[in-house]
Structure formats: structure tokens, C-alpha cells
Amino acid sequence: MAWDRNQMAARAAQELQDGWYVNLGIGIPTLVANYIPKGVEVTLQSENGMLGMGPFPFEGEEDADLINAGKQTVTELPQTAFFDSSQSFAMIRGGKIAMAILGAMEVAENGDLANWMIPGKLVKGMGGAMDLVAGVGRVVVVMDHTNKAGESKVLKSCSLPLTGKAVVDRIISNLGVLDVVPGGLKIVELADGVTEAELRAATEANIVN
Amino acid sequence: MAWDRNQMAARAAQELQDGWYVNLGIGIPTLVANYIPKGVEVTLQSENGMLGMGPFPFEGEEDADLINAGKQTVTELPQTAFFDSSQSFAMIRGGKIAMAILGAMEVAENGDLANWMIPGKLVKGMGGAMDLVAGVGRVVVVMDHTNKAGESKVLKSCSLPLTGKAVVDRIISNLGVLDVVPGGLKIVELADGVTEAELRAATEANIVN
Amino acid sequence: MKKVFKDADAALDGTLFDGMLIAAGGFGLCGIPELLIAAIKKAGTKNLTVASNNCGVDGFGLGQLLDTRQIKKMMSSYVGENAEFMRQFLSKELEVEFNPQGTLAERMRAGGAGIPGFYTKTGVGTIIAEGKEHKDFNGETYILERGIVADLSIVKAWKADPSGNLVFRKTARNFNPPAATCGKICVAEVEEIVPLGSLDPDTIHTPGIYVHRIIQGEHEKRIEQRTTRKREAA
Amino acid sequence: MKKVFKDADAALDGTLFDGMLIAAGGFGLCGIPELLIAAIKKAGTKNLTVASNNCGVDGFGLGQLLDTRQIKKMMSSYVGENAEFMRQFLSKELEVEFNPQGTLAERMRAGGAGIPGFYTKTGVGTIIAEGKEHKDFNGETYILERGIVADLSIVKAWKADPSGNLVFRKTARNFNPPAATCGKICVAEVEEIVPLGSLDPDTIHTPGIYVHRIIQGEHEKRIEQRTTRKREAA
């Protein structure tokens, strides 16, 4: 037993606080928008140049001029504002976004994050990920705890090229929730039906008490 | 005989070319707008955040939200665009303004310009003058050739704190027009009724042939 | 997420402390946050450093905070439309850091954009460059200027919606957008708060993310230099 | 001062040369200068370096200039929605300089704003920082990034007036305004040229000073990821 994609997204949504401006990455982080708690008002930023991102359009109402950072058609909301990409990253770099929720290939116990390239494989680029992890107030990573080979993705140090150094604050994986603290990671929560032993066994990084 | 303020402004207006974006300083440079040649379309920039500055408003039509860099009420034109001050100086610093026409206290033969402070006297600040002389394509100075004591303001080197180093391209004074060239100043034109000897006598800077 | 406050005193509550750095929008008396300045006067906060292009006039705008001796230092490009300013400046009671106007605007924009320093040609070879790092790019010399991050930004806009999106009017925009970005907290005063959804999202000058508190109020909007022309007879 | 040209070929006439640096607006296929890209293909200009967030798709947008091998180097943040791109990239026929997206946008803005270099935290401790100057500000480390000045900017806007003032629509704004500022010459293609005076001067995104030539044309405006939701039954 462990959390599935939707449960991870739902758990990540608990991180959100009322009034926050938030950037959600591609993949599981996108699903977080479906689980924003009642009474919590969150404004989603899309780094191509939009605050107040709404849901996908109804069929037939797609607008080629209205897309998100994943290039998907979206809609606007009553509070929406559009701006150019230099302004968009000015607010990201300037610390105006309270939180980014992102996927990861690897996270290290010191908060290093790798999520953009695998040497020798197809490199498509970092997009806005390096700017986000360098600039936003809090970085939460949502990912599977292990790769398809069963190897830990929560490491003593990343083997892949970094997206950012010491940037991750919290990891939400299928096995539970861990915080980056001095000396390593601290278990905050175990996923449903996961034991601490299981989580520790799947984690290469140092876990502190 | 020499040029008066309006004749200097009219001569400075001859510097303007069709399609140019231009910034006019306070004083005589402001008068240049009255002498723009027919068929020459020039767009005036006001560094507080306006392109396409129009004339003063009719009495009773002043708008507190519509002023120029001299804090005078002005009007807009059909091509007017407003922007913020960081954008305004981005275009100045970025070399998008073809020419600035400015007043001066002193100009040196290497193009140094002093027009913002007299040590020991009231210092009000440089406003946008340093940005303009550093950024615009061409700097034309319009000023009296000598001060009230009859001393030359066109010097070997400036005695006053500089606004910009080696920034002036052309001087239009009551006595004539001089260009900053390698080695000193070159006489381009004499004002009506002014002899070259008179101009030379009023000029401390080296004049080259 | 309640950004709308009932008045300037309420909107500034908890944001003020002695010795703080405040960035203020406005150019001359155009687009200045009149109501917030008056409320800071009332609050009596002392030893302020104020980054603002100008410092108001006697008894209006930031000039009011000179009368009460609340300002320790100005970061400005042009000052002294103001007898009390000049008295304090000449007697060295008031410290002034002169910044070229574009450098000041860019320093605010940079501070808000997470840029701690940038290079500019402005001021090279002048007293402004003294003590600053010089660096050559492509054979030309530039100086390093620093981003400004203020404890508080106070700005004045034309309209806001309740989410803090701001729209400015004509040249009253001036320093307000860069100032809004560089404050850890930004309070905006506006002429009208309009319902959510009534601003065109393509025409918002300052997105709500920058604006933490908003008030609506009456503005005097004093004109500093009333210049006019005569209508030609018909 | 005639800025309006009859078509893309005419608007680019005299601006193109082999080995030049072109800055292009657009994000994905949204807000890309379709017509100008097609005209550059037709012109056959070679050895181009193109600064653009992405590189189109096979046969559309900048992807067209890959088919003809006109591009030598891309400066981008995200590429490879495009089989031909990947083929050329992997075979080292095409050079790619990866830039973090915000760094790329800011480099364009800086180049247009007379700022040859600025410091950013983005990329510190990653391969992006290798070989770049590092500098500490207030105890944190930043890297120096350079402004981009392009030989030519190509952008796509929604509306223009004949003086070159541009208005963009929704997220099609993206990289277009910073790209417009960083070109020595900027050519804009728009959906509609409106009469002078019909744009509200408070709502202009790119003032005409940045824009040297304009064309009006039909745009395909292809959608890259058509995502929708179903209407709930009433």
C-alpha cells in the first residue's frame, strides 16, 4: 500500500494556504489544483505570463492565445492578469510566489533537486524549473519514492545534473512526507499503510529524528 | 549680434530627422518643439513615462495625471503611449531615443558635460540627465556660450562635477554650432553676425580645423 | 485573502517601524500616495529612509514627513522643490543619496525582480560612480548598481480590483509599478476599487501578486506646474 | 516615418544577413511570428543564431528553419517538440545553448534596456553557472548573466497602430515584449493594424519606439496541446 498519484496530489494540496500565489509543475503537481481545500483561496501562476489560471476550457472554447506553461489550453478567471515573460520571472525570481510544487527525478538530503536532464539521454531543457526553485518561497517536490528499478530517488547526493542546490523544503512521495532539515531528512508523515521501516528501506538519504 | 533663445531653439530643431524619437530638456530645449520643420515627424519622449507628448492643454483642461518631466501639464496625441519610469529609462538607456537636446553649465572639448551641480550651491539632483547623456544616440547641447561674467562655458575641461564623460556630440550656442571631434571642437556654423574670431575668443576649448 | 482595508491607518497597521526603508511611487506631485503618506505622518514612525524620485513640496506629499522630522535619509534623483527640505539638507539634518532617475527606477525594479545588482553606463565618470564596482563589457565601461528591497512600498493607482490588480492613469503611473514590486509589503491607495472581473486582464499594469493591502480614498491630486495655452480665436 | 509594410518579405528586406542573431517572440506555438519566420525561410538566410524560448514543431514555426538547415545555434530554455530538431541536436549539426526560461527573458529585457549584465540566483550550483562570474550579495551567491542584443527581433502582436504601438492578447504576449526591445531592428506582425488614436495609450504593451516595421496578416495560430473538459449535464 502507498499513495497513488491522486492521493499524492491531495496530500500536496494540504500544503496550500489561503491567499497564496502558487506555481504547479507538469504531471502530478498539475493534479493538485483538483484538491485545493474548501475555504483556501489560491491563485495559480503560469510562468509563460498569467496569474489566476482557470481550468481547461469546454470543448470548442479553446483559445490559441490562452495556454499554460505546459502549452495546454486553459481559461481565465475574474482575477486573471496577463503579463510578459520577463515580468513573470521577475515575480518568480523576486520571491513573490509563495510555493512551487514540482516533480523530480532525484532529491538529495541537503535539498538538492535534479529534474531536468539525464546525461546521454535526450535533453529538452530546464524550461522555468531553475528559476522557480531559485526564486519561490517554498519548494515542495511530489514524486515516486523509487524509480522503476526500485532504486531510491531520495538520495544522499544527486547523481544527475542539478536543477537547484539546496532548494527543496519538503518531499511528498507515494510513501510519505519528508522535510529537509539540518543533517538530512525528517519524516513528517507516512502514507496510508506504509511503515516507517518501509519508508526508511526505500530511502538512501540520511533520515534524522 | 548673435542668436537669441528662440533662434537657438530654431537652429537646434534643424537637427531633427523624420521618424526620430527625441527627448527635450528643460529651458531652451523645450522651445525646440515650436520649430520642428514641416514634413519632419518627431515623437517627443518625456522621461517620467510618455511617448508622443503634446502641447500644453487649453485653460481648464489641465489634468493632474498628465505632466511632463518638468512637471508641467501637457496633453496627449493620437500616437501617445504611457509606461512606467523603469520602462522609460530602459528605452533611454537602451539607445532607443535618437537624440536628446539639453541645456548645460559647461561643456569640454572632449564632450564632457556638466549641467547638474555647483559645489557649495544648492544641489537639487541630476534627475534623468545622467541617464539621457549615457543612453541616447546623439546629445546636442543648447546654451549660452559664456556665463554672466563673460567667461567661456566651452572649456578645455569642465570645472564642475560631470553629468557625463565624453557624451556631447554637438554644441549649439548663441554664437554658433560646434562639433566634438578628435582633438577638440570643430566650427560647423557661425550665428548671424558672429565672426569666427568672436567665436574663438569666447571659446576656451581647443578649436580644430 | 482580504486585501481591502477601510482606511490608510488600518492598511498600514503593523507594517511600520522606526528606521525602516520605504519605497514610494510618484513623480513630483503626480501619482503620489497622498493618503498613506499622511497616515505615516500620523503614526509618527521615525528615522525613515525613503526611496522616492522626489520629496514632495512644503506641507504636501513627502514634504509632510520633513516637517515632523520623520525622514532621516532620502534616496532620490531630484529634490528641493521645498524650503524645509533645503533647510534640513543644508544643515545636514537630512541625508540625501542622489540616484540618476533611471538608475533609481531600475534599482526598484531589480529589487522586486530578485536581481541584487546590474551594470549600467549611467553615471560612469561622474561622482555617482565613485566607490562603485566598474566592469567592462564589449569595450565599454559600466558600473554596478544594487537592487533596492524596501520594508514597505506605498503606491497610488487609479483603479484596483479586490485581488490587488492595479491600473494607473496616464503619467501618474511613473515610479509606482517598480516601487510596488520592491517592497516586502506593498500597500496601494486607489481612486476606485472595482468589482473582481471588471478589469480587462490584458490591461493590468501591476498584477495583484505584488499588492498586499488596498484602500480607496479621495485624492487632492495637486498640480505642481499649471501650464496652459490659449485657444486661438475662432 | 512609414512603418507599415505590405508583407513579410517587404518588411524584412535589407534586414537579413548570414550569421546574424535573431530574437523571436513566442512560447511554444503561442504568439509566434509565423509570417516572418516563413519569410526568413524563403529568404534562405544561413547560419542563424536564434534566441527563442522554444524552436517550434516539425514544419511549423521555427521548426521550418531547421528543415532548411538555416539555424546554426539556438538559445532556448526548452526544445525538442520536434523530431528534426532532435536529429540535428544529437548529431551535433545544431548547437544549443540552454538558458533558464526567466534568465532568457531577462537577458532580452536587459539587452533592450542598456544593461550588459545582471546577477541572478537562478542556476547557481548547476551546470548553467559553469564559467560564469559568481558574486555574493548579502551573504548569498549569484551569477552574472549577459544582456542579449539581437541584430533583428521578430515578434507577433494582436494589434498595432501605424506608429508601431503594440497590444498583445492573453498569454500570446509571453516573450514578445522583451524580444521586441532587444533587437537593433524590430519587425512586428499583427492580426490587425488599427487607425492611429484607436488604442488607449494606457493599455499599450510595447510602445512604438521599439518597433520599426509592421505587417498585418492572417495567422494560423496552431494549438499545441488541445486540453478541454466536458460540460456537466444540466
What does this structure look like?
The complex is a heterotetramer, with 2 copies of chain A (about 210 residues) and 2 copies of chain C (about 230 residues). Chain A is of the alpha/beta class. Chain A has 5 helices and 13 strands. Chain A has helices at about 5-15, 30, 85-95, 130-135, 195-200; strands spanning about 20-25, 45, 50-55, 75-80, 100, 105-110, 115, 140-145, 155, 170-175, 175-180, 185-190, 205-209. In chain A, helix 3 runs parallel beside helix 4 (about 130-135). Chain A is globular and about 50 Å long. Chain C has a single domain, classed as Glutaconate Coenzyme A-transferase (3-Layer(aba) Sandwich), CATH 3.40.1080. Chain C contains 6 helices and 11 strands. Chain C has helices at about 10, 35-45, 65, 85-90, 100-110, 175-180; strands at about 20-25, 50, 70-75, 95-100, 115-120, 135, 140-145, 150-160, 165, 185-195, 215. In chain C, the strands form 2 sheets. In chain C, strands 1, 2, 3, 4, 8, 9, 10 and 11 form an 8-stranded mixed sheet that branches. Chain C has a 3-stranded antiparallel sheet with strand order 5-7-6. Chain C starts with 7 loop residues before the first helix and ends in an 18-residue tail after the last strand. The model of chain C has no long low-confidence stretch (mean pLDDT about 95). The chains are: A alpha/beta (about 210), C alpha/beta (about 230). Chains in contact: A-C, A-D, B-C, B-D, C-D. Chains A and D meet through helix 3 and helix 4 of A and helix 5 and helix 6 of D.
